[in-house]
Amino acid sequence: MFMKTFTAGVLAISLTVTSLTPTTASADMSSDDAIAGILTLLFLGAVIHNSRDNDVAPTPQRQPRPAATRDWRVLPASCIRDRTRRNGNTVRMFGQACLRNNYAHVERLPQACHVRIRNQEGRIRQGFRVRCLRDQGFRTNQR
């Protein structure tokens, strides 16, 4: 891009300068002037040729997405936990902390599947019910 602008500027200046200086018409030209003129034309031709070759933009190559983002509906099976509530019932769920560490799209999980339980020690555990997520079209990375 710089070469195009530079070449156009040089050409404009040279045309302006040559048209402003009055000269007398002479048919005799020394061999030094002829060589200088030919070299100038070759230089300008090379600059123009190089600027045209550099204009070809490479076609962008499509980059494959990593496997983790290719299918955001695949959940890590290592996050499945069986938690026991205070009343003795067991809830099968994906642990929320484990999902935050091992799954990039926690914010896309349906909130209808979110569960918050209090275990037998009185601690609150949060996560997403396995069956609910399966019914919503999610699956684990184990076949």
Overall pLDDT: 80
Amino- and carboxy-terminal Cα gap: 54 Å
Give the neighbour order of strands across the main sheet: 2-3-5-4
**Treating each run of at least 4 consecutive H or I residues as one helix, how many helices?**
5
Please report the total strand number as a whole number: 6
List the quaternary state of the chains.
single chain
Number of domains: 2
Major sheet characteristics: 4 strands, antiparallel
The poorly predicted ranges are none
Keywords: Signal
Signal peptide: 1-27
Which helices and strands, and how do they pair?
Blueprint: H1 2-20, H2 31-53, H3 67-70, E1 74-75, E2 80-84, E3 90-95, H4 96-102, E4 114-118, E5 124-129, H5 130-135, E6 139-140
Parallel strand pairs: 1-6
Antiparallel strand pairs: 2-3, 3-5, 4-5
Structure description:
The chain has 143 residues and is of the alpha+beta class. It folds into 2 domains: 41 residues; 70 residues, no CATH class. Helices cover 41% and strands 18% of the residues. The strands form 2 sheets. A 4-stranded antiparallel beta sheet has the order 2-3-5-4. A two-stranded parallel sheet has the order 1-6. Strand 2 and strand 3 form a beta hairpin. It is rod-shaped, with a radius of gyration of 37 Å. The model has no long low-confidence stretch (mean pLDDT 80).
Observed structural traits:
two-stranded parallel ribbon, 2 domains, single chain, four-stranded antiparallel sheet, rod-shaped, about 140 residues
